[in-house]
Amino acid sequence: MIDKLMHKMTIFILTIALIIPIIHVYAQENEVTVNISSLKVRSGPGLTYDIIGTVGQNDKLTVIGKESDWLHIKFGNSTGWVASWYTKSESIEMTNKQVVSKVNKLNVRSEPSLSSAVIGQLQEGSQISAFKTEGDWIEILFNDQKGWIHSEYVTIVDQVIKDEPKVETFSTGEFFLVSVDVLNVRSKADLSSKNIGQVLKDESFPIIEKNHNWVKIQLENGKKGWVYSFYGSYTEQPKPSKSITTTPNETIKILYNGTNLRSQSTTSSDVVDRVDAGQSFTVLEKIDDWYKIELTNNTIAYVASWVVSSNDTLPTSTKEPLAKREKGTLKGLTLVIDAGHGGNDRGTTGALGTDEKDITLLTAELLASKLQAAGANVMMTRESDVYVDLRKRVSIAHQAAADAFISLHYDAIENSSVHGFTTYYMHNYQKELASYVHKELGDMVSLNDRGIQQGNYLVLRENKQKAILIELGYLSNPSEERQLTTAQFREQATRGIYNGVINYFDAQIN
Description:
- By secondary structure, the chain is of the alpha+beta class.
- Helix 4 links the parallel strand 34 and strand 35 (449-454).
- The N and C termini lie far apart (69 Å).
- It comes from Psychrobacillus glaciei.
- Keywords: Cell wall biogenesis/degradation, Hydrolase.
């Protein structure tokens, strides 16, 4: 009798263990700051859980745990859950520190998040300079670019600095070109020294001297200061000034609620105000991808071009009514094809070394050619190896009034045995397109069908058009990676997507 009772209790405990989600609990509490005007607090980690309250802009939240992209926080005398993508962690600079990897194949990511792209891996025992912490993440320099690793898998050690560092002096001829959005200029070659100013991406300055990983530069106002050399490069010529154009009588209209207006033409500069969709402003000038505007209180601000529409870029639709389109063609339709990642964002890196950004572009180009041959007006979010902001990708679809937006990706996970393709949608109005495309894709490729799922991706969540995101297979699976990187697979996959798009729009014709 006792044995039977113990057996039942064991089964009960195992069942509970299987159904309870795995929640990461922080070894020590940390804080995040709310970065939208009103953030809902829910009873559980997901959009389907009840709303138990709200928190406001710049509120500090104490984080006690995390599940996927949801943060478990202290809320009054109880606890609640908030979406992590509406918060930001406080950064703490690290002075003269290095990290040593405790594990083999430690993922280095593009952002301090498990959902961000993997840009490489560290081997066990690798030692590398650390610059700052943000929550459970540490910023490092990896292959000449910024990267992030999880603090759980490294040991922090003091950086060894020689007593008499070698100093090289330069009189003329060499410049330092800034490669990050905003870079602090310091009074000494030390992260703990006084911050005397900031320089912006693509600006260049004469080099006065070098001291290990630090460079002394001369600013335009005549001041001299030190910058960390990992955040730029050396050139023999000064960088040409930014492209500035005057735009008389041009106006822009804000596309999204809560759009940030910034103090400089960079996403890292201070937010001076937030505005909602529909508000219009007169453009003073355009600086690369940014508009300079003046607010009602005479404050100068900058807004990114990918979150606005302008009176010289508003689409002039020449679409024919769907009823006039013949079945089997896409004439009169506008389709946006999004090749995932690009530029500094490599996406995932396969077990055999394939960069996701490269094969998404190859796949997108082949798909675009098929859709154009059927009469569609095809727009690509990128046509080369460049970085395109996610909101800019969505803005392209909105400004073109796209009939469909298709984002192409290849997947990865630490478990190398996982394989197959998945099609994602976010809103109900996107689900039907996902169903048609997924079915035809499954008929063309010999991969494991992982089904259609809701995916909380920005290019789907913020997209007012019919948008889907396709993960075409797992690069983390060596066998599948070999298949995914062949021209034959790309031909089969794009043929399947093409067939799904044709069938979807044919079904719209009465």
